[in-house]
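Here we describe the complex-level prediction in full. Unlike the single-chain runs in Section 2.1, the two entities below were treated as one system.
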Amino acid sequence: MPRWRAFWVRALGFLDRERRERDFAEELASHLDMHVENNLRAGMAPEEARRAALLKLGGVEQVKELHRERRGLPLVDMLVQDVRLALRMMRRSPGFTAVAMLLVTLGVGANTVMFTVVNTLLLRPLPYPDAARLQLVQTVGEGGGAAAAAVPDYHEFRSGNRSFRSLAAFYSRPLDVTGGEEPERIRVLIVSSEFLGTLQVPPARGRDLVPADERWGDHRVTLLTDGFWRRRFGADPAILGRPITLGAEPYTVVGILPPAFSFVGLEAQALVPMAFAPGDNMNSHNNYFLTMVGRLGTDATPASAAGDLNRISESIIAEHPENRGSRVDVRPLQAAVVEDVKPALLVLFGAVAFVLLIACANLANLLLARAATRRREIALRIAIGASRRRVLGQLLTESVVLAACGSALALALAWVSVGTLDSLSQTVLPRTEAIRIDGAVLAYTALMAVLTGVLFGLVPALRGMDVDLGDALKEGARGGDPRGHRIRAALVVGETALSLVLLIGAGLMMKSMHTLARADAGFDARRVLTVQLGVPRRKYIDEQLERRFSNLAYARSTRFFAEVVEQVRSVPGVTTVGAINGLPLMGEVWGKAVTLYDRPLPATLTDLPPIQYRVVAGDYFRALGVSILSGRAFTEADTEQGAKVAIVNREMARRYWNGLDPIGKVISVNPPIELVPRGTVPPDYEPARLTVVGVAADVRYAGLNVPPSPVVYAPFAQGSEGATTMYLVVRAEQDPLAPVRAIRDRIRQIDPDVPVSSVQTMEARVSASVARPRLRTIVLGAFAGVALLLAAVGIYGVMSYAARQRTREIGIRMALGASSRSILTLLMRSGFAMVALGVAGGLLGAAALTRALRTLLYGVSTTDPLVFAAITGALVAVSLVAALVPARRATRLEPLVALREE
Amino acid sequence: MGDSLEVRQGTLALMVLKTLEAMGPLHGYGLARRIEQTSGARLAINYGTLYPALLKLEQEGHVTSEWGRSDNNRRAKYYRLTRAGRKRVEKEARDWERTAAILACFFRPKES
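The structure predicted for the assembly as a whole is:
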């Protein structure tokens, strides 16, 4: 106990050091006075009395030092002293301090922001209790392509598995909310009853779903997200138990989700239970659309769970061969959510580490230059008895204090930047709402501060101490430090190499972006407006007829879209109007299998070639500028009563008809009855046979960077098959946004219950589709730009320092008649050497590291020689200019001035 | 002085405590003199070494100090034993006697 008490008293000892110092000085003075007095009384001479007393005491200063040591903890004391000294040094040279802090702030700030993002998305668990046990369970096709599970499969997985504490399934659909104000189309998550239980997120109000909610007829209940409840219903708690109109049906609100609820980046506004009417084709092995999420039991691992589910899958396949070739994949939900952004995040995180290293190299150079001017001070300290370790500690404290101050600024910078991330869309960066600076980030920044301080401070400190006392004190501050110069040059070579790696990386990304922007997407986005329109299913589709596969079921929706096209066409400023069920770049919307009647039927359903299916109304092809390569586009004559027709894209013609003209070939987008499982279709089922009447140019539906796959287009009137969501494509004479108001009015006149949403120009859609690659290109480009700037500053610094060191030598040479040209050559030689070594290192590094970009590049090899050459050339040019400026300045010296310089 | 002993830190602390116990509050110089007298001038202490020892005892809470007036009206800092200090003296004294007794067994001339 007393020992601990002593420790704390000492640890706090530095607080009132000056008072204690005075106090003890007085105590010693009184001690000496008493002793001297005694000695005098004993008969000594005054001189002698004082001397004897001092001797007996053992020296005033020595006693004071002993006392001082005991007073505080020497280590703490030393640290406080060093930090004070460091702050004083920083105040004394504000220019140096500002530059150094700027470097640290840039380097550490960029690192902190990146770490904040990485920490949230890759390190911190998802916002569910015990989130590590949550797994995304997906059925995948043979080729590895993500497929989905059918409802009956899910039921077997749910009841038969032994690995999951609970296994939920979900899919999402857009549904219209009507009644009250404007109709609105929202995304609804349709889930099995244990969905929230699996995530362990109980509703904030009301109740969770129960198994009984999955029963058809009892299923019209819904839970609203907090955001939707506040926005649409003004956070009215009385909404619980009341019905709202979803998809033209009344759903009772039974619960409200907690405010922070989010699920895998799906911006869903409501949950409804998954339920199917008896005999519903959705609930069969013809329809695969479910994804599952499960919470692992205590003993299970993702691998064991996958084994378990695949065992069940085998037994399902034995009974239902149409599932053949699919297997179940289980992986952690966290990894699944971020898998798209993870490679880019890691690349950018590596890039900021490079930037920080380069900043450290520059800082080390700055400190080295300063250490040279401080040699005298250091030599003096050592001469009057400071140990070398003590001086090293003090120099390191200086750099760490500098780094800490810079890091504090960096943290403020990061705070501001992280706030702006929220404005990014979920498609660019998932879970932006969760990204924030937390304890882990603070700890990371603190660690960075200390590490960078030591990293850029250690070499200069060791150099600074390597002084020959006699020389340093004798010789005035001047004098070369050849080894110091070599270290500085090596640092510059290193940072040149690092920045070349970053620049090449950024160059590859830019070229990829450029290739992407110039990729032939197959359409002309200029002056095109797109509008999403959804008709309420209840009102527009006759479900009785639909169950009998009668095309008459869709007569009303066909009429509606025909009328919309007709009406919008007459809006002033509009030239052409069409509609399609899925716009280019939106991703796959409707996959089907095609039957080609000019060849034998395959053995099973899964052997039919897959295609993307698009239904179009009006002049879609002309409106979007998609060329018809042969044959014709659809016309108004292609009605329900007319001959059934189709248009295929060029890729389809290439793949299945060897690029020969397929006009007149007969196909079907629904499987022949021979291949359909018995009992799932009525006995008189006969899929429509379509005659190919045209070939359209390849349009990139899945994204600019995805090569086109086979597409079959059908007229909406003949093949809508219950599609209720269409995108109007309007080509305008001038500004495509000008007619928006008029278009809205026309549609409201036709049916006020049809929500108009996602009004965007096609150019905006194109731009949004490359938002993610563009963002990472911009960020990496910015990092590379900073790196280049820092490297140039580094070269400039070393060259001017070297030139200054050689001022006398240059003066002598010039006095002896050397031309300024030969002086320039002399000085530039070292500049050339540094740049050459840096470039060599950088090229090697880039060749090894750009592999990490492979998945992020489109149409560019990771060792694209053009990019490597162009970027290297640019770097060499910039570095040589940075070297040339100080070298030329040195040659312009007057020899006399140069010689006098001392 | 050739025969005098160097004093170890711990021993010095004990001497200080014991002296304070016997004499009551004392200033540093008085304490030093007193310890020298008690030892019969057989100890060679630099008076200066006393002060870090006093500081340590103070930090541990065994003594306290305050400024006061000496006999001939001089300002001096007086050290006084605290309750914890008194306890420590008792304990150390007991320990010392036991240790001394044990050591004595070893150093006593062997009985043949």
